[in-house]
Amino acid sequence: MSALRVSVRRRVDGVVVVLTGELDLAEVGRMTRRVLKLEQESPAALFLDLRSLSFLDSSGLQGLVEIDARGRSNGRRVAFIRGPGTVHRLFELTRLEDRVEILDDLPPE
């Protein structure tokens, strides 16, 4: 098991949250708490970088869906940077890739 690491980088156009390791039932709470704190700062955009995730389960996916929903309701851009094949596969299977913004890389600042 690879514990989740959450790192944050601020940009002029928003905040990048880099998720590294495994986003599962045991770790989703930590990610959610960190993102909720960031949301209090009202960034214009929130980029969730999934490229370093090694595992994503349904509870982790649900946590990401909730972040997207809160962002939409608050007028905030939420974009996911495409994760590795096994991670992105969940977005495909659930057809979530049709409902959220997925980028191949971070946009230029």
Topology (elements, then pairings):
Blueprint: E1 5-11, E2 14-23, H1 28-39, E3 45-56, H2 58-73, E4 77-81, H3 85-93, E5 101-103
Parallel strand pairs: 2-3, 3-4, 4-5
Antiparallel strand pairs: 1-2
Helix pairs in contact: 1-2
> β content, as a range?
25-35%
CATH topology name, in short, is Transcription Regulator spoIIAA
Helical coverage, percent range: 25-40%
Number of helical regions: 3
Number of domains: 1
Q: Which H/E pattern describes the elements?
A: EEHEHEHE
CATH superfamily label: STAS domain
Mass-distribution shape: globular
Biggest beta-sheet profile: 5 strands, mixed
The CATH class label is Alpha Beta
Task: Using the CA coordinates, give the radius of gyration.
Answer: 13 Å
CATH architecture: 2-Layer Sandwich
The N- to C-terminal Cα distance equals 34 Å
The strands making up the biggest β-sheet line up spatially as 1-2-3-4-5
| Strand segment tally | 5
Helices and strands: which structural class? alpha/beta
Q: How is this structure best described in words?
A:
The protein is α/β, with parallel strands linked by helices and about 110 residues long. The protein has one domain: Transcription Regulator spoIIAA. The chain is about 35% helix and about 35% strand. It has helices at about 30-40, 60-75, 85-95; strands at about 5-10, 15-25, 45-55, 75-80, 100-105. The protein has a five-stranded mixed sheet. Strand 4, helix 3 (about 85-95) and strand 5 form a beta-alpha-beta unit. Helix 1 (about 30-40) packs parallel to helix 2 (about 60-75).
